[in-house]
């Protein structure tokens, strides 16, 4: 660790400047002042030791987290002093020495972020209650947003549980300049089309938002998405993995000769086969 102040703070920010390492710090924040075993961190982030160990070593080297090997039980704990030091550096430089930031405005923004974070945490915790931890722990930010949009649509249409068409609709609603969004447009799958099909569903059971869950086919799609991310060597499940999951579930239903889901019906109506679609996704560029 460098003795030069600027290099020290630059190294701290570099250590925190990766989604996995920052995620580990967030996990340890949740457990602070308690520590966590290596196995607990592996389970929480659904990573192999080879994937997790370099991130932990980087954080330990910069003092962001501390490791305790007492009794042969390797445990990790957040180093609050280092975080306080980093925040104090920014406060001193930006609010005291140079006076380029208004601390009152920072506090206002902090309060707004905290309020939004509390809302998001409630939504995510509710969603986490109905997903296997192995899947939930690997969801990327965009996929989490897709599933929250899918749940919102299912609740709005009074169609719980969340099915594969709700997830496909969530992918369309999420948008963004991604391979998934470009492919859905190329395949002429849009929000209006999917909502029109969803409105044809009639569910006699009582609408209970508290009982939010996923259909078996939707869970299968999510498991396929997790498999795809793992096979591709990706830590987080992204929207392309989720689209692959929906397509693989469609292909499975065909091979098992059972009725296909609404998402599968929409995919089938494009005139493409599952293999054609998977080839386009995995190439990253539409064919033809």
Descriptive report:
The chain has two domains: 5-103, Arc Repressor Mutant, subunit A, CATH 1.10.10; 122-283, Clp, N-terminal domain (Double Clp-N motif, Orthogonal Bundle), CATH 1.10.1780. The protein is built from 15 helices and three strands. The chain has helices spanning 5-16, 19-31, 38-45, 49-61, 80-97, 103-128, 133-136, 141-156, 164-174, 179-186, 191-198, 216-231, 239-255, 262-268, 274-283; strands at residues 36-37, 65-68, 75-78. It has a three-stranded antiparallel sheet. β2 and β3 form a beta hairpin. The protein is elongated and about 65 Å long. Residues 204-210 have low confidence and may be disordered.
Keywords:
288 residues, mainly alpha, Arc Repressor Mutant, subunit A, Double Clp-N motif, 2 domains, 15 helices, 3 strands, elongated
Question: What does this entry show, briefly?
Answer:
The chain is 65% helix and 3% strand.
As laid out across the biggest beta sheet, the strand order is: 1-3-2
Number of distinct beta strands: 3
**Biggest sheet layout:** 3 strands, antiparallel
Order of helices and strands: HHEHHEEHHHHHHHHHHH
* CATH architectural arrangement of the largest domain: Orthogonal Bundle
Overall pLDDT? 82
Which fold name is given in CATH as the topology of the largest domain?
A: Double Clp-N motif
> What characteristic shape results from the CA principal axes?
elongated
Name the poorly predicted regions: 204-210
Helix vs. strand class:
mainly alpha
The amount of beta strand, in percent, is under 5%
> How far apart are the termini?
54 Å
CATH superfamily of the largest domain: Clp, N-terminal domain
Q: Portion of residues in helices?
A: 55-70%
* Tally of separate helices: 15
Question: CATH class of the largest domain, please?
Answer: Mainly Alpha
């Amino acid at each position: 660790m460098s003795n030069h102040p600027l290099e020290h703070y630059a190294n701290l920010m570099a250590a925190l400047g990766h989604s996995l390492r920052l995620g580990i710090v967030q996990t340890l924040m949740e457990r602070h002042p308690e520590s966590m075993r290596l196995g607990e961190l592996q389970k929480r982030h659904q990573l192999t030791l080879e994937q997790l160990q370099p991130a932990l070593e980087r954080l330990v080297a910069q003092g962001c987290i501390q490791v305790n090997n007492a009794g042969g039980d390797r445990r990790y704990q957040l180093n609050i002093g280092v975080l306080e030091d980093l925040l104090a550096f920014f406060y001193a430089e930006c609010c005291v020495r140079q006076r380029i930031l208004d601390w009152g405005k920072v506090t206002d923004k902090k309060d707004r972020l905290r309020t939004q974070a509390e809302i998001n945490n409630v939504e995510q915790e509710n969603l986490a209650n109905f997903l296997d931890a192995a899947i939930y722990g690997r969801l990327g930010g965009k996929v989490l947003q897709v599933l929250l949009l899918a749940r919102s649509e299912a609740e709005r249409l009074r169609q719980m549980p969340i099915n594969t068409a709700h997830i496909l609709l969530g992918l369309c609603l999420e948008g963004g300049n991604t391979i998934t969004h470009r492919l859905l447009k190329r395949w002429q799958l849009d929000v209006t089309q999917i909502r029109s099909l969803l409105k044809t569903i009639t569910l006699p059971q009582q609408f209970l938002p508290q009982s939010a869950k996923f259909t078996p086919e939707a869970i299968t799609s999510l498991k396929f998405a997790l498999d795809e991310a793992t096979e591709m060597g990706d830590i987080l499940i992204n929207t392309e993995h989720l689209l692959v999951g929906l397509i693989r579930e469609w292909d499975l239903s065909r091979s098992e000769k059972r009725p296909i889901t609404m998402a599968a019906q929409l995919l089938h109506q494009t005139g493409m086969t599952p293999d054609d679609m998977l080839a386009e996704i995995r190439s990253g560029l539409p064919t033809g």
